[in-house]
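Batch job 17 of 40 flagged for manual review because the log was empty.
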Amino acid sequence: MAIETILVAVGPMDTVRTADLATVVTETAGPLGASVVVGHAFTESEYEDVRDDLDLEERIDDVDPDEVAARRAPIPDLIERLEDADVDCSVRGVVSDHGQGVVSLADEVDADRVVVGGRRRTAAGKAVFGSTSQEVMQSVSCPVTYVGDRGVLE
């Protein structure tokens, strides 16, 4: 199976692992000439909050989720790192439940690989709060690379 498109799904907590995500993605995308889609899923309330934080005056229905995602940390930093490594990349945003949003983005961009970051959690924490990365790993139809951060506990 050729890897032509890689979706790297990021959220605001991925700021601590942006360098690791960029390294993992460039190590794969660079040699293969794969394009990278940096994706972010917003819940409706997060989308409204971020839109307000970015001082976007348009009605929420008129603001492109791709534009909002492109301006939300850590995406600008990740894009800069990918572009510095000569990796072809773009940004996609979706308003949805986090896990399902990432799964739908993977389907929409026809991803051959998904890269997700995650926090170390206790078993009880996973049971109570769920895990976006776990949902993605169980639901997408392509291989998933998980980039953890051992220094961050929830």
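Reviewer: the log was empty due to a logging misconfiguration, but the result itself is present. Helices lie at 18-32, 44-53, 65-71, 75-84, 98-108, 123-129, 132-139. Unflagging and moving on to job 18.
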